[in-house]
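Dear support,

We are seeing what looks like truncated structure output for some complexes. This example has three components. We would appreciate it if you could run it in full and send us the complete C-alpha cell output so we can diff it against ours.
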Amino acid sequence: MMLHSALAIAAVAVSSTAVATFPRSVLAFLAFQGAVLFVYLARVSRWLRVGLLGLALLVLMPLIGAYNGYYLEVATQVGIFVALALGLNIVVGLAGLLDLGYVAFFAVGAYAWAIPGSPQGNEIFGGGFPLPPSMFYLFLLVGLLVAAGAGILLGLPVLRLHGDYLAIVTLGFGEVIRVLANNLDKPINFTNGPKGITPIGRPPVPFGLPYGEYFYFLVLLIVAVVIVVNRRLEDSHIGRAWEAIREDEVAAQAMGVPLVRAKLLAFACGASFAGVMGVVFSAKQLFINPESFTFLESIGVLSMVILGGMGSIPGAVLGAMAVTVLNLQVLKGFSLWLNELKNAGVTILGFNLADLPTQFEPAKYERMIFGIILVLMMIFRPQGILPARRRQRELR
Amino acid sequence: MDLPLLLGILPQVLLDGLILGFMYALIALGYTMVYGVLEFINFAHSEIFIVGAFVGVEIMLGLKGAGMLDRLPWPLVLVLVLLAGMAASGLLAVTVERVAYRPLRHAPRLIPLISAIGISFFLQDAIRLFESLWRNAFNLVYPTMDVLNVRFELTQTIDVSVKSLVVIVAALAMLGVLHVLVNRTKIGTAIRAVAEDQAAASLMGINVNRIISLTFLIGGAMGGAAGVLFGVQYGLINPYTGFIPGLKAFTAAVLGGIGNIPGAMLGGLVLGLLEALAASYLSLLTGGAFGAEYKDIFAFSVLIVILIFRPKGLLGEVIRGRA
Amino acid sequence: MRIPLVIILTLAIVAGGAAVDAQGKGTIKIATQSPLSGGQAALGEGIKLGAQLAVEKFKGPLEKMGFKVEFVPYDDQAKPDVGVSNSKNIIADKDILAIIGHLNSGVAIPSSEVYKEVSLAMISPANTNPTVTDRKYTNVNRVCGRDDVQGVVGSEFAKSLNAKTVYVIHDKTPYGQGVAEFFRDDAKKKGLNVLGFEGTEEKSNFDPIITPIRARNPDLIYFGGIYDQGAPFFKQAREKGVKSKFMGPDGMDSSDLAKIAGKNVVGMYYTSAAGPASALPKAKQFVEDFKKKFGKNPEPYAAEAYDAATVALKAIEAAAKGGKAPSREDVAVAVRKVKLSGITGDIEFDAKGDRKKALYFVLQVDSDDPQKWGDNKIVKQLAIAPPSASKN
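Here is the complete output from our reference environment:
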C-alpha cells in the first residue's frame, strides 16, 4: 500500500511536470492521463485517492490547459463522451436494450439549445431570438426533458421488439433524426439543413474564466452528477428491474417487473444524459450541423460502453476515455510526430522518411486500427477492460 | 398535380425499383442466411459485398489494359467477372468467420456484433489502402461495355437497358439456384437442420462447423455477385460504397423476416420499390416540400410501421424455437 | 517491475518531448487542415498536396533569411469537432504562422473562431460559403470564390444559353446546397422556370431521381456538388436518354469527372474561379509539377491551395523583419496586403478577405480524355465583385 501510494503521488507529480515542460509532447499528456488512471486503480487509501484525483482534475488539468489549450479540449471532449457512454450504459448495459441510434438524443439536445440560442429561432417564430445567453442553464433542463421525450417516443413502438429487430429500429431512428436535421429547412426552416446553425449563444461565465476552462469545469460537474445518478439507479429498484429484464424478460415479467414502464424509463433516462450533453456541446462548438450526429458516432459510443465493460460505471468512463483519446490524440499525435521526423530529415536504416508515400500516413488508418482493436478486444477480453463484477463471472 | 406525368413515369419507376430490389435481395440473402444459422448479424457483410465489386472492377480494368475487353464476347466477360467476385467474397466471408466469429460462437450476442463492426471498419480501410497503393485512386469506375448500355424503348416512357436486363436475369438465376440448393439438396437440408437446432444436427452426424462455413461461403458469394452487378449497373465504387446498400439490405432482410430466405427476397424487392417510389414521387406529390432526400427514412419509417404490426417481419422468422 | 517501467516511460517522454521541441529558433511552419481520411479524402489530399508543392517551391527566400520552413498537415476528417480540437493544437504551436484550410465550410467556421483568438492567418482554398468571410474577421481570407457569386454566374450563363427551363439538384452539403440555392434564386429572378429543386445524398443510384426529370425535359440541369457525385449522375442521366444540357460549380473541376463519366459529360459547362491550364501557362506548369511529384492529376482546389500557400509565404516574407520571425498579427495584416499573380489568377484581398477581382470562368468540357482536362475551353469570363454588404 505504501509503495502504491508513493508511486501514485510520484506518477502524478512527474507527469504533470513533464506536460508543463514539454507542452507539445503528446506522450507527456498521455502519461498524465495514465497517472490519473493509475491513481484510480491503485490500492491506496480512499483519502489519498480522492485527494490526488481532485488535485489532478481540478487544479492540474486547468493549469495544463493554460499551457496548451488543446489538451483541455481533449479533456472536455472526453468528459462529453463519458456522459454519453454512461447514458448508453443504462440502455444497453443495464437494461440490455440494444440501441444503435443513441446519437439521435445527443442531436435532439444540441438542437434544443441551438435553435432558440441563435438567430435561427427567428426563422420559425418571427422574432425575439436569440434568447439571452443566461437562459443556457435553463435549457440544460429543457434539453434533458426534450431528449427524454424523444427516448419515450422511440421506446413506444419498439416495446414488443427484441434483440436484433430492436437494433435495426433504433438504427433507423438515429438515421431518421439525422436526415430530419439535414432536411428540415423547408417548408419551415427549423434546422437550416446541412448548413448548420451558427452562432450559438454561450452562457455568461462566472469568475471571468476563459471559455476553455469554463466548459471543462461544467462538463466535469455534469459528469460527476451523471455518475452519482447512475450509481443510485444501479442500486435501486428500477436498476434491478432493468437487470432482470436484460437477463430474462419472461422471468422478469413473471416476477412482476412492469416491462413497459421499465423499458420506457430506461430509454428516457439514457436519453436525458445525452440531451444535457447535447446542449453543452452546441454552446461549446458555437456551430452545429447534422454531420456531427451520424451512425458512426452511435457506434463509437456503443464501442466505448462495450470496450470499457458493459454495465459498469468505471468501465464506461474508461471506455470513453480510451476511445476518445485514441481517436483524437494517439494516431494524430503519431502522425504529427512522424511528420516532424520527416521534416527533420530523419532516416531509418537508410530509408529517408520523406520518401514515405502519402498513403502510409498513420492518421488515415484510424478506422482500421479501431476496427482491429474492437475485434481483438472481443476475442480476448469480451467483458471489457473494467467489467461489472457479475459480468466477469458470466463471461469467464 | 400533373396526373398524366405522375402516371406516365410510374412504369419506369417500378422497373428501376425492381432492379434495385433484386440487388438488395441478393445482399440481404447473405445477412439472412448467416442469421438463420447463427442468430447473428454479420455487420461486415456490406464490405464483403463491395469486395466483390472491387474484384470485378480490377479484372475488367486488367482486361481493358491488355486490350482484351473489346475482343472477348461480353457474356463471357460478365460470367468471368461474376464468378470471380463470388469466389472472392465467399472466401473472404469464410475467412472472417474463422478469424473473428468462431471464437465468439458462444458469447452473448452483443460481443460478436461488435467484432463484426470492427471487421467492417478494418475491411473498409484495408480496401482503401490496397487501392491507393495499387491504383493511387479512391473512386474506381467500371469500364463501360457499350453493348450493355444499349437501351430498348418498350413504350414511349419506359426504356430498359441491356445491363438492367442482365442484372434481373442474373439475380433471378441466382435466387433460383439458391432455392434449389437450400430446399432440394442434401447440403441444403443440412443447412436448414443446423439453422433449426445445432445440437440435434450434430447428433445426426452433421459437421456443424463445416456447414456454418458453407453458409458463410454461399451468403458471401451472393453478396459478391450483388457487388459485381452493382458495379456494372451503377458504374462507380469506392471503399465506403458498401456501407449504405449493406445497411438497407439488412433492413430488407429484417423487413422480410430475418432468417427467412424467401423473406429476404421479398424484403429486398419491397424495399427497392419503396425507395424508388419515394425518390421519384415525394417531391412531385408534396410540391417540393419533401423531396428525394427523404427516401431513406421513408423506407425506415415503413419498416417501423410494419414491425409494429408484424414484429417478426413480413414472412415471419423461421428459426428454432429457443428461448 | 514498476520502477523500470517508470524509468522507461520517463525517458520516452523526455525523448518525445525533446524531439518535438528541438527546432532551433527561427522555424516557420505552414499548416494545412483538410480531410485526409474518410469519404472526402481525395479532395482533402489535393489541398494538402497543392499547398505542399507551393511550400517546397517558394520557401527559398525565407530560407535565405535564415529560417527553416516546415509544412505541417493536419487531418480534420471533415468533422467540426476534430477541426476545432486540431485548431487548438495548431495555435499552441507558436511556429505555425499561417493555416491553409479547410475543405468544408462546416468545419472552417468553428475552427476559424479558434484561429481568431490568436489572429492566425487563415487562407481558405475551398470554403465557398459566404458566412466564412461575412463575419469580417481580419485573419480569415479565401482564394476561392463565393457561393453567392458562383451561383449567379451559373445562372447568368444559363440565361445566355437561352435555356428557358432548368432543374436544380444538389448534394445536401453546405457547399452543394448553398451554391444550388443561389443559382436557383437568381435563375428565378432572371425569368427562368425552375422546374424542380431536389437534394440527394445518394452516391450511386440516381435512376429514380432521373426519371421525373426526364419526363419534364428541362433545357438545363444544374448539379450543385462535387464531381464524384456529379459524374455518375450525369452519366446515368445521359444513358437514360436525358437530352438537357449540364452545368455545375467548381466542384466539377476535376479530370476525374471525365474519367468517370466519359463522353457523357463532353460539352457540359462548369464555373470556376480558377482558370484552366490552357488559359494560364502558370497553371499548366503547376499541373505538370504536380503530376511529376505526386503521380496523379491535381484535384479540384489543389491549385487554389497552391496559391493560398504562396500567398502565405509571401506575406511572411513581407512581415519578417531582419531575421526575426514575424508575429501572427503581422502575418495576418501582411496577407491582406499581398498582391500575387498566382496560377488561379490575380490575387488581392478586400476588406472582408474575399478576392477583390473575382474573375469567374465558365468552362466547357472538351474531351472525355482525363489527361486533356487542362485543355477545356473558356466559354465566358465574368468579373463580378463579391457583395460588400452582407445579409446574414
